[in-house]
Amino acid sequence: MSKKGVIGVLSAILIAIAAFGIYRYFHPTPLGLLRQMIRNLGRVESFKADMTTNLDGTVSIGGIEAELGLNSDIGMESALKEGISHQKGTLKVSAIGLSVDAPIESYTQSEGTKTTTYSSTNGGKWVKSVVDSASTSETTGEQGQQEEQQNVDIDVDSKAVIGLFQKIMSGEVKAELAKETETICGKEAFRMDITIAGDVLQYILKIIIQAMGEKAQIPDDLDLTNTTTVLVLHIYKDSRLPASLRIDCTELGNALIRSFLKTDGIEGRADRFTFEIVVPEYNTVDSIRIPEEVISGAVDSEQANILDLLIPGMQ
After folding, report:
1. Backbone angles phi, psi at 308, to 5 degrees
2. Which class is domain 3-310?
3. CA triplet 106, 260, 157: central angle to 5 degrees?
4. Closest alpha carbon to 72 in 34, 27, 106, 43
5. What is the pLDDT of residues 43-75, one digit of tens each?
6. Which of 13, 89, 144, 150 counts the most CB atoms within 10 A of its CB?
7. Cβ atoms within 10 Å, residue 314
8. Which residues of 147-169 are buried (b: 16+ CB within 10 A; e: fewer)?
9. d(Cα 193, Cα 89) in Å, to the nearest integer?
10. Cα separation of 255 and 269, whole Å?
11. Torsion of CA 294, 298, 301, 307, to 10 degrees
């Protein structure tokens, strides 16, 4: 082949590769988008988010039903390099026709496998709790120890995301990309619907619970076999970063209620249990510091009495 012929063939190959890349950028696949999202998340230094939780249901005691509600609206700032996040918002609890609104605030600091949280309700005492995910290696056996050593620098959220990503790649989890984009925080975003079957959900839940430390447990008899959870994930088209995540946890909530409420004569039901997080900004938080008065005045969670933990404003 002549020199011109070789150049022509190479040019055609390069044009085809470029065209395919452009096509894939504007017509992404679920796996392709998730790969880009995870890669770009590795470059994020900070973010701001708004989180809402809505739980509505009923509890029946001796045949008498009462409505229950738990709603929260929390703003969050996180500086990833410092490993510190700040959450502030409102928690609303309603039961038997009564309703209580309380402002809540917390700081969370992650150092290696240790996570320290300072929390306060309605301006009350700051309560300190410490969780060391490395402690779970004592109860997970040799394989668990090896996994913990390999993932010592990976936080619980990353483990759950990676685990879910692996399940999608293997085809165990169904992910569908909507044909049309939607608008989140004034920006164009792809929409992905991810359907998680009960066995995969139990796998992810186990990752999260194990990383929370030895005090966090799920019931041994918790059976999520017939449970399905749908995640609606939006990814910004320009940055390929998460825009929002909405989870319908109603079936999961009912499974947990059935597992926890085993007392004769007591039944519970979740009519709605949803969680949503919206991330309007990335890399706009300069720094977060936990105030000295919070650290020095905090009561250890194991020493705090029931009034510190449950009654707003108690000093």
Report:
1. -60, -40
2. mainly beta
3. 40
4. 106
5. 999 999 999 999 888 888 777 788 888 899 999
6. 89
7. 14
8. bbeebeeebbeebbbebbbebbe
9. 28
10. 9
11. -100
The CA distance from 290 to 295, in Å, is 7
- Ranges 32-36, 170-174, 230-234: which has the least confidence: 170-174
Q: Are 197 and 228 in contact (CB under 8 A)?
A: yes
- CA-wise closest residue to 110 among 169, 174, 149, 155: 155
What are the φ and ψ backbone dihedral angles of 289, each rounded to 5 degrees?
A: -125, 140
The sign of the dihedral angle between the CA atoms of 279, 280, 285, 288 is: negative
Number of other residues whose CB lies within 10 A of the CB of residue 3: 7
Q: What angle do CA 250, 255, 257 make, to 5 degrees?
A: 95
What is the pTM assigned to this prediction? 0.76
Q: How do the residues of the chain divide into helix, strand and coil, expressed in percent and rounded to 5?
A: 30, 40, 30
User: For the chain, first and last CA: distance in Å?
Assistant: 87
**254 contact partners, CB below 8 Å, separation of at least 6:** 269, 270
Q: Specify the DSSP element, H or E, that contains 53.
A: strand 46-61
Query: Cβ distance 66 to 96 under 8 Å?
Result: yes
Host H or E run for residue 245 = strand 242-248
Name the residue type at position 246.
R
Q: What are phi and psi of 108, to 5 degrees?
A: -130, 130
Place of tokens 């005045």: 297
